[in-house]
């Protein structure tokens, strides 16, 4: 089933998402865009029904352990609650650039050796940057956990590299931007869409950064960002797999609990002002087909207990996204992509409802041959109007809920997915058992609630539309080759 809960899915598909490496993807209460995430959980441990436990190390760093003894493997992650939304204008992309530079050495590990050492342990490793967080992981045989803890804690606390390494790697990042954004028409459209939707929110900036900012970025920009945000009280260690929580805690205290801490910069709120009318942009780019994206401003899901009205509405919007495109043959596909009168080759809906910034409800569509983006846009809006007018059936919601539960069960087959879920929930300030709580809350959503949000949140004043206008497919324009450097992404 297509998931709409996590920020990762939408960002990866629509807005060049979390930038991810090739090997496969506190003490303060962060407040951004008017939202305040819960502070890290105080010293525990607490445990969930699945056995996950959360601890606070001696220096305030958080540790989450999820035992899963089905295979002799473990995933070790470090999540830092900092992403592109914490950048300032002029240094867009620095969070992602720093992620690259974290592989370039420490006081004791030369550039490039980190990855070689993980591979020698029989593991694979990766890193990712999003608007809300930066993460690093290794998947290794469970008996090599201490080795990767030693490596990861060292680079977290002692990252350093010569200017020459930065000069090589910034060219790698620029090439990544060219290949993944500038040479991809839909990625260009997504970048322009987010820049049009938001005015005050830092979500308006691309994760990879604007090219002019990358051109002007210096080694000290990355070093300053590292010194500001990489402190134990702004991070969590997540370990999932064939491990014993008490032993993991002891190792974490040994390698992470003694790291020095420092105060974080004050996160000032950057509240997005209300939208006061429809916004529309067009992007011209060489492409075979058109494309249209509709973004509606909606309330965010900020808590999973003691719900307020925006949280209740966000849950109904989450259910609405699944009604529209949460399974094969869902409403949008049946109405717009099937039959003799179809107008689209594909359509979809996604609810971007969690994260540290504003929330969105997205529709996307690719016009069928002989059809226009305008027809797809009109068709998508007609389906929302149909739900607002006629509602949805209880049977339809039950089908969505059943598939959601099944999807959650399947995801737990992967220790990587378990660790990913725990880390992303920590960033959001959600509890350890967030997924279970969410499933319980989804069971209570009624057809009337779904109909109500369909009627409330899909007017012109909350809408930004981006349309791709296909241009002739010319030969690729020549681009300078990147300077030598080991690409991570």
TrEMBL record:
<keyword id="KW-0645">Protease</keyword>
<dbReference type="InterPro" id="IPR007863">
    <property type="entry name" value="Peptidase_M16_C"/>
</dbReference>
<feature type="region of interest" description="Disordered">
    <location>
        <begin position="470"/>
        <end position="489"/>
    </location>
</feature>
<keyword id="KW-0732">Signal</keyword>
<feature type="signal peptide">
    <location>
        <begin position="1"/>
        <end position="21"/>
    </location>
</feature>
<dbReference type="Pfam" id="PF00675">
    <property type="entry name" value="Peptidase_M16"/>
</dbReference>
<protein>
    <submittedName>
        <fullName>Zinc protease</fullName>
        <ecNumber>3.4.24.-</ecNumber>
    </submittedName>
</protein>
<dbReference type="InterPro" id="IPR050361">
    <property type="entry name" value="MPP/UQCRC_Complex"/>
</dbReference>
<feature type="region of interest" description="Disordered">
    <location>
        <begin position="24"/>
        <end position="50"/>
    </location>
</feature>
<dbReference type="GO" id="GO:0004222">
    <property type="term" value="F:metalloendopeptidase activity"/>
</dbReference>
<dbReference type="InterPro" id="IPR011765">
    <property type="entry name" value="Pept_M16_N"/>
</dbReference>
<dbReference type="InterPro" id="IPR001431">
    <property type="entry name" value="Pept_M16_Zn_BS"/>
</dbReference>
<feature type="domain" description="Peptidase M16 N-terminal">
    <location>
        <begin position="66"/>
        <end position="208"/>
    </location>
</feature>
<comment type="similarity">
    <text>Belongs to the peptidase M16 family.</text>
</comment>
<dbReference type="GO" id="GO:0046872">
    <property type="term" value="F:metal ion binding"/>
</dbReference>
<dbReference type="Pfam" id="PF05193">
    <property type="entry name" value="Peptidase_M16_C"/>
</dbReference>
<dbReference type="InterPro" id="IPR011249">
    <property type="entry name" value="Metalloenz_LuxS/M16"/>
</dbReference>
<feature type="domain" description="Peptidase M16 C-terminal">
    <location>
        <begin position="217"/>
        <end position="403"/>
    </location>
</feature>
<keyword id="KW-0378">Hydrolase</keyword>
<dbReference type="GO" id="GO:0006508">
    <property type="term" value="P:proteolysis"/>
</dbReference>
């Amino acid at each position: 089933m297509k998931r709409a809960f996590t920020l990762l899915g939408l960002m990866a598909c629509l807005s060049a998402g979390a930038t991810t490496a090739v090997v496969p993807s506190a003490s303060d209460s962060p407040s951004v865009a008017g939202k305040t995430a819960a502070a890290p959980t105080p010293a525990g441990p607490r445990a969930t029904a699945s056995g996950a436990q959360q601890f606070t190390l001696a220096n305030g760093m958080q540790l989450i352990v999820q035992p899963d003894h089905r295979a002799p493997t473990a995933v070790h992650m470090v999540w830092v609650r900092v992403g592109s939304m914490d950048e300032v204008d002029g240094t867009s992309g620095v969070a992602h650039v720093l992620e690259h530079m974290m592989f370039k050495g420490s006081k004791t590990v030369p550039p490039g050796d980190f990855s070689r050492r993980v591979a020698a342990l029989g593991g694979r490793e990766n890193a990712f940057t999003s608007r809300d967080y930066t993460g690093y992981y290794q998947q290794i045989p469970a008996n090599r956990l201490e080795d990767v803890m030693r490596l990861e804690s060292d680079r977290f606390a002692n990252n350093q590299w010569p200017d020459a390494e930065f000069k090589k790697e910034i060219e790698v990042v620029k090439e990544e931007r060219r290949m993944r954004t500038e040479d991809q028409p839909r990625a260009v459209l997504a970048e322009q869409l987010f820049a049009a939707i938001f005015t005050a929110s830092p979500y308006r900036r691309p994760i990879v950064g604007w090219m002019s900012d990358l051109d002007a970025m210096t080694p000290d920009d990355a070093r300053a960002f590292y010194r500001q945000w990489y402190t134990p009280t702004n991070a969590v260690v997540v370990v999932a797999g064939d491990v014993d929580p008490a032993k993991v805690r002891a190792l974490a205290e040994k390698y992470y609990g003694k790291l020095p801490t420092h105060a974080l910069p004050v996160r000032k709120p950057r509240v997005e002002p209300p939208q006061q009318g429809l916004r529309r942009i067009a992007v011209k780019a060489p492409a075979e087909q058109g494309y249209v994206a509709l973004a509606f401003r909606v309330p965010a899901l900020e808590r999973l207990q003691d719900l307020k009205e925006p949280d209740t509405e966000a849950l109904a919007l989450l259910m609405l996204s699944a009604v529209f495109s949460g399974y094969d043959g869902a409403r949008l596909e049946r109405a717009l992509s099937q039959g003799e009168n179809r107008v689209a080759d594909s359509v979809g809906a996604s609810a971007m409802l969690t994260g540290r910034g504003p929330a969105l409800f997205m529709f996307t569509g690719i016009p069928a041959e002989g059809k226009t983006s305008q027809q797809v846009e009109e068709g998508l809006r007609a389906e929302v109007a149909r739900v607002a007018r006629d509602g949805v059936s209880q049977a339809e919601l039950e089908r969505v809920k059943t598939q959601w539960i099944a999807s959650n069960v399947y995801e737990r087959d992967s220790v990587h997915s378990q660790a990913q879920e725990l880390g992303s929930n920590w960033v959001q300030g959600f509890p350890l058992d967030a997924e279970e709580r969410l499933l319980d809350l989804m069971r209570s959503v009624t057809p009337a609630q779904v109909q109500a949000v369909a009627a409330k949140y899909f007017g012109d004043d909350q809408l930004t539309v981006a349309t791709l206008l296909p241009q002739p497919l010319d030969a690729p324009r020549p681009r300078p080759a990147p300077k030598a450097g080991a690409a991570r992404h």
